Amino acid sequence: MSNAIPLAKPSLSEVERQAVLDVLRSPVLASGPRVEQFAKSVAELSQRNSGIPCSSGTAGLTLVLAALGIGAGDKVVVPAFGFVAMANAVWSLGATPLFADCDPRTLNVDLNSVAKLLELKPRAVLAAETFGNPAGMPELEALCAAHEIPLVEDACEGIGGRISGRPVGGFGRASVFGFYPNKQITTGEGGVIVTDDTRLAERCRSLANHGRGEDGSTFVRPGWNFRLDEMSGALGNAQLSRLDEILDQREAVAAQYTARLSGNIELVLPSVEKASRPSWFAYCVRLTGRWNATVRDEVIQAMAGHEISCAKYFPSIPQTPAWQGRCEPNANNTPVANSISGRTIALPFYAGLSSQEIDLVCQSLELMIERATFRHRASPTDQVDGIEPS
Ligand SMILES: *Cc1c(COP(=O)(O)O)cnc(C)c1O
């Protein structure tokens, strides 16, 4: 067996294996009772009335935006620093993303940046709990409510998190969870939309099922097949039964990383707000503003040479080849996202990462940073980081 340390790994037990095998002995393989139970449980966890299963987090975002009536010519605010699924969902409907800059401390959208973009009359605001940190979500919800613009919470990275006594998945008009295998819990591919808006829920359900009406046989609108299958539903139910255990293990890994790396003056570590419980999706550090993407890339490459997988989470979306030159003029001023995205390093992170492995990752990381920064010591960049290292 190899000693390689992967970036992410799902936490699967005999419970999950048995649940999926049971489906293969049942008559229903596509959407059925297990899928419905799973969506209902996710809605309960989010304190929402309705849960709609769907085939991925991206499918869920697309369904909610479509159900809100968003289409060609509309604008939607999305984070510049975040996963491309948000911008892609907007694009797939023929709408245009307006990229909001990020808060350098929380890595979630900067409220001032969003407030400015609201002047351009977007039809919705999409925002996520970056790496599982719910900081700022209540304030963002209030801002959107004051402007009567629907907030769609992309809760894909935040399941089980809480802030100000409220669960992630409970903010805005509707929220979307995703269950790709690098998330806290997985269904393989899969997603769930949750909302208290019964009509919106019905529309999402119909759009995900070829536009069928409630009778199941009339096609009342054009739609997609964005359904979830029973193997995924069974896996999801089993994973949900172990959610607390998995989140506790991930929190313990995060605490060990923080304890081990907090003395390093070249690194900015994840921050946790007082009134919140993050749900750790990734443990992402960044080099201070003295260094640039060249140094960061050398560190990641050197780690890979030692079979330790790290990732560049996330590129600033407006700077990716997909969006360069295609962004709305006079929006998309995202200097913080642009600067930070060149310096981030997501470390191997999953439930069950051992203390020895954490030690090895940290030791290697510190050595690789020392070497890379020494090589580039004559050319520090002194970019604006927004905050000082702790
Ligand atoms: C994972 C993720 C998604 C959805 O991903 P899928 O692979 O489509 O399930 C969407 N938004 C964010 C922020 C994510 O992290």
Summarize the biggest pleated sheet.
7 strands, mixed
Based on secondary structure, the structural category is: alpha/beta
Percent of residues in helices comes to 25-40%
Query: Per the principal axes of the C-alpha atoms, what is the gross shape?
Result: globular
> How big is the Rg?
21 Å
Strand content: 5-15%
Write up what this structure looks like.
37% of the residues lie in helices and 13% in strands. The protein has 12 helices and 13 strands. β4, α6 (137-146) and β5 form a beta-alpha-beta unit. The longest helix has 21 residues, at 355-375. The structure holds pyridoxal-5'-phosphate.
Tell me briefly what this model is.
This protein is of the alpha/beta class and 390 residues long.
Which key terms come to mind for this protein?
390 residues; alpha/beta; seven-stranded mixed β-sheet; three-stranded antiparallel β-sheet; 12 helices; 13 strands; binds pyridoxal-5'-phosphate
Task: Set down the secondary structure blueprint.
Elements: H1 14-24, H2 33-45, E1 50-54, H3 57-67, E2 75-79, H4 85-92, E3 96-100, H5 111-118, E4 124-128, H6 137-146, E5 151-154, E6 162-163, E7 166-167, E8 174-178, E9 191-195, H7 198-207, H8 230-241, H9 243-261, E10 267-268, E11 276-277, E12 283-287, H10 293-305, H11 335-341, E13 344-347, H12 355-375
Parallel strand pairs: 2-3, 2-4, 4-5, 5-8
Antiparallel strand pairs: 1-9, 6-7, 6-11, 8-9, 10-12, 12-13
Helix pairs in contact: 1-8, 2-8, 3-4, 3-7, 9-12, 10-12
Bound molecules: pyridoxal-5'-phosphate.
Pyridoxal-5'-phosphate is lined by residues 56-58, 82-83, 85-86, 128, 154, 156-157, 178, 180, 191.
